[in-house]
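One chain given next:
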Amino acid sequence: MLYKYEAGRRITDSTAGPLFGTIVEPDGLESGTIYVLRSLSDNPYIAQHRNLIHKIGGTGGDVKKRIANAKYDATYLLADVEVVATYKLFNINRTKLEKIFHRVLAPV
């Protein structure tokens, strides 16, 4: 897929360091959380592809509160969800970052 899309890029300098750090700068302002969820839907297609289908989103609040009523929300396929990963954001616009993720991942 790297070669299929003109915007595809590859990082070749292994000394560049991690994309995301684990140390918060003293002047860092928390701007939210990006989360990755897996649906627990019993829909046959979703169940068969559970390890491939994920929802990526962002919130300015608590992720657990955001997904508390997932089984009543079409955004979460009317099913409970499992949190796969969360990433705290600092000094970044979470809404813009979420839109970038969605745009980049839309083809898949």
Observations:
- The first strand starts at residue 30 and ends at 39.
- The chain has three helices and three strands.
